[in-house]
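Following the same procedure, sequence and fold were stored together, as reproduced here:

>
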Amino acid sequence: QLSLVESGGGLVQAGDSLRLTCAASGRIKSIISLGWFRQVPGKARELISAITWRGDETHYADSVKGRFSISRDSAKRTVYLQMSSLKPEDTAVYYCNHRTATLTYWGQGTQVTVSS
């Protein structure tokens, strides 16, 4: 079983930067990709960024391209989301996930609030 724990959220001002961290523990095989999602009340959870297990491909939602950057440290079993030039519309709960061919694991989420 895999456990994911996000950290690094907080209250910042527009234009500031934050780095989210997702630490994995437990055993799991055949991870395909690692991703960051976000969700605001009343809306569906949306994919913000993802990276393949090998780290050779990345994906970004149009809304964050050029501002957010995903990376991973396989030795530390950690995935990062570097967020820059934050906007009030980036305010959300951010979730980390790890995906296999058959299962998806989620963290508990970390709140990011961007004030104008």
The longest strand covers residues 18-26. The chain has a mean pLDDT of 95.
